[in-house]
Amino acid sequence: MDFPGKILIFMGMFGSGKTEIALNFAQSLSRSGQRVALADIDTVSPYYRSRDLRETFEKDGIKIIAPAGKLAQADLPIIPPEVFGYVENPEYRIVIDVGGNDDGAVVLSSLSRRLPLERCTTFYVLNPYRPFNDTVANAVSHVERLGQRSRMRIDFLVNNSNIGPETTEKEILYGEDFIEKISKITAIPVAFTVVMNCVNFLKGRYHEFRIIKYMKNPWEGRE
């Protein structure tokens, strides 16, 4: 699955699953033969961060751009200068994982001043089973507010409706109904529906993006 734009930005409220999707999207681009860099500018969540898989992904040829050393776990609005080097490098496409909530949007706003916006494609990830997006009104409010705060045009919505390992086709189809309402109100099209870990999902109304779970919960530890 591919979309136009050199720079592909994934944003959404905390717990929406945007980091998992950004990781899988970067893998998908890499497997199609493209050179990919993934920039982790998530300053919100201390647990689910692309940077924690730096070594694993770089073995697959995907460059992870994130603060290193003592700054790797800091909840600070740090944008590594490397990001702009890859923006200017014609050989790479960049996937950007942005922190959720207003703080993440402010960081993206700062970054957007130096990005070629005409070459950016921004995805807003929604999971209606998370408290911040549990109603249509809440979801619309967050989509509009974070778009304004980030100074970025949101090009697509992403249905990531799930309840973890208990997810069935029922929850995914509910998410498609839910996101269709958001799409009609905001006039933002839906890019795809996410299906994780081989859930038995027959066919919905949107393109399907099957992903695997890379990020572990804090209580699961690391292998």
Automatic annotation (TrEMBL):
Residues 15-135 form the CobQ/CobB/MinD/ParA nucleotide binding domain. CDD domains: SIMIBI. InterPro entries: CobQ/CobB/MinD/ParA_Nub-bd_dom, P-loop_NTPase. This is CobQ/CobB/MinD/ParA nucleotide binding domain-containing protein. It comes from Mesotoga infera.
